[in-house]
Structures are given as structure tokens and as C-alpha cells.
């Protein structure tokens, strides 16, 4: 049969297929993945057995029989042996650019289940790095993940690494330094860090090794401790993005945040220019310093057209910190108050963003902050409608129906993170068990018709592992087992996956390219080592990708599918 005749016959077969392949036939696919459970997240064709890829695009999705018929001699065919395939995961709120540059310099307590094991990690790192090298655990952990359910003591850090400075940061609240670290940083009773940071003193007025602070203080301090040469930052970034690929992540929206001054973007720009990115990054920029934020944004944005960039690196507007005095940090519950000056500054920033057509993500951890911010957004929207810009509010741990309805009326979206996985007991302690069992109010937002998308807020306050987020969305259980969201507020597995795929692509304004496995979409996908839809929910956090594709190219291969 000639190629022309074969093409005609197969095209007619596809068009008439009752399985609704909706395939745009290519001459011969480069790659076929077959004999799998393909979760497409495409409402028109939610499940399939196989798909075909040509170049960077998916050209057909359907049954084994139909997709096999597209294979040519030069088509690579991978038998998935029943493995699950999902669209590449998209984290809509990660501080990835910052985290990537310091990844190699950090020591991780992700998944460590006892404090003693955590101290052993420090011992091993001290031996590996050598005397005098910094050992820095910079967030992403919580004492409730440990069987001991407590913080480390300074003595334990001294004993674990007597010849190395050790820095252990807990969220943006406090940090623990051993004696070598206090000495290396020159901390005395008079030491002050950036506004809000100070050392705890004992009865004799000497530093205990415990630091108290806030986001600016700890951002500045961790940047100092983790300083590295440009070449080291570049290689560290490659490894971090490779780590994300191994978890099925193919795209992130970088949320800017504390410490992200212009020089902090040099590494990602260099990696992009070299063609070395294995994760798509849409990046937002935050106000680098408190006060005069509107003037600062005007200066920077004059050189930044909306959506500037390409499919790998793209400018995604402003966020998450627009005006520092309108930023409520991680305040749990009511009580946030803003000044007339801060609200006026935010109004000026948002007017600028709306007039120039920029996307915006606004941090509001509490509903009180969210309400005050929406007062200003509504004023802007009355002058310049923002619906087409898809602005979003992020966090909203205790958001109300009224708040979500106001957002919906302006076409805004809601990006939610798995902070409650680590901080559920903190919320319960502030607001009570009943409140903690329904927060964050994801189901309420969804029922009101808001687009809700998922993320991690990694790496300082949570893990970058999206499987933890997926498990938490489904079972609602915080670390340690409680609190647990009530059953009616938990998501199904498909709903949870939508937050990290289809909905996340909408927030990126790339829903016609990413987030679903359908004909014509970019072939970003992950083949999983475990059956996400049927495995025990308590084990979802352990899922890894065995094969991750970015635009049809392999960026992670665990060799299990070869």
C-alpha cells in the first residue's frame, strides 16, 4: 500500500472512530506510547490507552489498535505495560528560580520522619562537604513530621556538626544556629538583621543561637549563607529542574517573593539562553524592597511587555508581593489592618498593571487581607476591566463565600497550596478544630465557579513534591494525621489532578497548549510508577515519574519503560 493510500485510509478510519480520537494525522509519529492508562484531563476524551507524538505535539489519542496503525518503520514505540500517563504537572505557585540556585547548597529534611534522622542527615552532609562548609536546612519541614514532634536544640546541632556552621530555618518564623554558625555570622547581642530580624538572648544577654524574624529578614540571611558562584548557581538550577522532572513537573509559575532582586534572575536567563531548561517557567516579579513600590514597578515594567518570552521562559506579570505593607505574611485568621498609604500604593500599582495588560497574582493569606485587597481591585476593575487578564489571589486560607463571589465577578482565579499539610495544627490552634476541618475552602470556591489551581509555595514553607499536594487534596489529612478536612470538602482524584493540569494551564493562559493530553497539544506528560487513580490514597505522596516528556523530548527517564 502506498503512503498516500495508507494515509487516506487511516484518516478516514480516525474520522469515523466511535472512540472520538479527534486525531490530526501526521505522516508518521516520532513516538507512540501504548498499552497504558492515559488520563487525558480532556473532558471530550477523558481516558485512552495510547497516544502518538510528532515533533513537540500530540497527533492522536485513543485505543492501542488505532494508535498502533499510525506507526511507521522509524516510529519509536514504548509499551507502557499498564502504567498511568498524566499531563505534565504545573505548579502555579513555586519560588522555583530562587530555590533552583541554592538547591545544591541546601540540606533537605523533606520526608524525614524523625528528628534523629534529620540530625543524621546533617552529620552525613558535614562529612561530605568537609569542615567549615555551611550546612543549611532552609525550610520545607515542620516539627510535626517528626515522631518526636519538636524542634532541634542548639546542643543537638552542635553535636551533629561541631566543625561546621549549621543553619536550620523553620518557615519564616525562626531559625536555629549552632555555635559555629553564630561565630561565622558574627552574631552578638547588638546584631540586627533586615527589619524584623533579631537574635534571641539568654538571661546574661548572650545570643542563644535562635533567631526570630520575618520574610525579608530570613530571605536576606539565607541568601547570604547560600551565596555561590554563577557557575555553581547554573548547575544547581539544572539539577533542581531535573528533580522536578522526576516528580512529573513540566511547568511552574514562579511567584517572585522575598529577596528576589533583579540580579537573582541572571541564572535563569542564562539557563534559558543556553537552551538548558527542562521545566517551563512563567515568572512574576515582586516589589524588591518596601516603600515606593509603584515607582519601582514603573521603572522595571517599561522594559517588559506583557507575556514577553517564549514557550520555555515567559514573563507572567506582577506577584506575589506588590506592596509590602499590604502583605500579611502567613497570618492565620482575622486582624490584618492596612494603612491609607499602603492601600493608595497598591491602587497605583494595580492601575499600572491593568492599563498595561499585565497578569497579577496577589498574596492574601487571610480573608481579612483578601477583602481589603479586593476593595482596591474593584476600583481598578471599574476603570479598566481585568477579566481578560486573569488576575489571581493566592493562599486565602480562610476565604469566605463573599470573597470568592467578588473574585468570580471580576474573572479572577484562586491558587491554593498544600500549606495546610504541614500547618493544619497551627490553624486549628488559632481558629479551632472545626475551622481547620474546612480550610482552605477549595470546594466552596469551586462550587462558586472559580477556576482553582494548585501549587506548593515551595521551598521555604513546604515541599516541592506535587504528589504530597495531590494526596492532601484527596484525603485532606495534615502531617501527623490531623486535622482532616471533612469528607464533603475533599476532592476526587480527578478533581485534584485538574488543579495541577487543566486549571493550572488556564492560570498560565496556556490552556490551548498545556494541561491536557489531546490532539494538537504540546506533548508535556509524565508516565507514573504507580496507578494514581486506584492506589491507596495514603501512598499517593510516594509516586514518581519513570518517564517525563517536555515538548515530546525526554527530560527524565528512570529506565523502567525502556
UniProtKB/TrEMBL annotation:
Gene3D superfamilies: 3.10.310.70, Metal-dependent hydrolases, Urease, subunit C, domain 1. Residues 1-22 form the signal peptide. The keyword Cell division does not apply. One of its GO terms (molecular function) is hydrolase activity, acting on carbon-nitrogen (but not peptide) bonds. This is Amidohydrolase 3 domain-containing protein. Keywords: Signal. Residues 76-556 form the Amidohydrolase domain. The keyword Signal applies.
Amino acid at each position: 500500500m502506498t503512503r498516500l493510500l495508507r494515509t487516506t485510509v487511516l484518516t478516514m478510519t480516525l474520522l469515523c472512530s466511535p472512540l472520538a480520537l479527534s486525531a490530526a494525522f501526521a505522516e508518521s509519529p516520532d513516538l507512540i506510547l501504548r498499552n497504558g492508562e492515559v488520563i487525558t484531563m480532556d473532558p471530550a476524551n477523558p481516558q485512552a490507552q495510547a497516544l502518538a507524538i510528532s515533533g513537540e505535539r500530540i497527533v492522536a489519542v485513543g485505543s492501542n489498535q488505532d494508535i498502533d496503525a499510525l506507526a511507521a518503520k522509524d516510529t519509536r514505540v514504548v509499551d507502557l505495560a499498564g502504567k498511568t500517563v498524566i499531563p505534565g504537572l504545573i505548579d502555579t505557585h513555586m519560588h522555583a528560580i530562587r530555590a533552583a540556585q541554592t538547591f545544591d547548597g541546601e540540606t533537605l529534611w523533606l520526608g524525614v520522619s524523625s528528628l534523629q534522622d534529620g540530625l543524621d542527615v546533617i552529620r552525613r552532609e558535614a562529612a561530605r562537604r568537609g569542615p567549615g562548609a555551611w550546612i543549611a536546612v532552609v525550610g520545607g519541614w515542620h516539627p510535626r513530621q517528626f515522631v518526636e514532634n519538636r524542634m532541634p536544640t542548639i546542643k543537638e546541632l552542635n553535636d551533629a556538626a561541631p566543625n561546621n556552621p549549621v543553619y536550620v530555618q523553620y518557615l519564616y518564623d525562626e531559625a536555629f544556629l549552632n555555635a559555629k554558625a553564630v561565630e561565622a555570622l558574627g552574631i552578638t547581642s547588638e546584631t540586627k538583621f533586615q527589619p524584623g530580624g533579631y537574635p534571641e538572648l539568654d538571661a546574661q544577654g548572650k545570643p542563644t543561637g535562635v533567631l526570630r524574624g520575618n520574610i525579608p529578614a530570613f530571605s536576606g540571611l539565607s541568601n547570604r549563607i547560600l551565596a555561590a558562584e554563577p557557575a555553581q548557581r547554573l548547575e544547581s538550577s539544572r539539577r533542581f529542574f531535573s528533580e522536578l522532572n522526576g516528580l512529573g513537573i513540566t511547568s511552574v509559575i514562579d511567584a517572585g517573593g522575598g529577596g528576589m532582586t533583579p540580579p537573582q534572575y541572571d541564572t535563569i536567563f542564562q539557563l534559558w539562553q543556553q537552551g538548558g531548561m527542562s521545566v517551563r517557567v512563567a515568572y512574576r516579579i515582586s516589589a524588591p524592597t518596601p516603600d515606593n513600590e509603584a515607582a519601582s514597578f514603573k521603572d522595571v515594567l517599561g522594559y517588559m511587555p506583557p507575556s514577553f518570552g517564549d514557550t520555555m521562559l515567559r514573563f507572567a506579570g506582577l506577584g506575589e508581593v506588590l506592596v509590602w505593607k499590604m502583605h500579611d505574611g502567613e497570618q492565620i485568621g482575622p486582624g490584618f489592618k492596612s494603612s491609607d498609604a499602603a492601600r493608595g500604593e497598591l491602587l497605583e500599582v494595580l492601575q499600572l498593571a491593568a492599563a498595561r495588560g499585565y497578569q497579577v497574582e496577589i498574596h492574601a493569606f487571610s480573608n481579612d487581607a483578601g477583602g481589603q485587597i479586593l476593595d482596591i481591585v474593584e476600583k481598578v476593575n471599574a476603570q479598566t476591566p481585568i477579566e481578560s487578564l486573569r488576575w489571581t489571589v493566592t493562599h486565602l486560607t480562610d476565604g469566605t463565600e463573599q470573597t470568592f463571589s467578588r473574585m468570580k465577578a471580576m474573572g479572577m482565579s484562586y491558587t491554593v497550596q498544600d500549606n495546610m499539610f504541614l500547618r493544619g495544627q497551627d490553624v486549628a490552634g488559632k481558629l479551632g478544630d472545626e475551622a481547620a476541618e474546612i480550610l482552605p475552602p477549595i470546594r466552596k470556591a469551586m462550587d462558586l465557579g472559580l477556576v482553582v489551581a494548585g501549587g506548593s509555595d515551595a521551598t521555604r514553607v513546604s515541599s516541592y513534591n506535587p504528589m504530597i499536594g495531590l494526596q492532601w487534596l484527596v484525603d485532606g489529612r495534615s502531617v501527623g494525621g490531623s486535622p482532616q478536612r471533612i469528607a464533603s470538602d475533599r476532592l476526587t482524584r480527578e478533581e485534584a489532578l485538574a488543579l495541577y493540569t487543566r486549571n493550572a494551564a488556564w492560570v498560565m493562559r496556556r490552556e490551548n497548549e498545556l494541561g491536557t493530553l489531546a490532539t494538537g497539544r504540546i506533548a508535556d506528560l509524565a508516565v507514573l510508577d504507580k496507578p494514581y487513580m486506584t492506589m491507596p490514597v495514603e501512598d499517593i505522596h510516594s509516586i514518581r515519574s519513570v518517564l517525563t516528556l517536555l515538548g515530546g523530548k525526554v527530560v527524565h527517564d528512570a529506565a523502567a519503560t525502556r
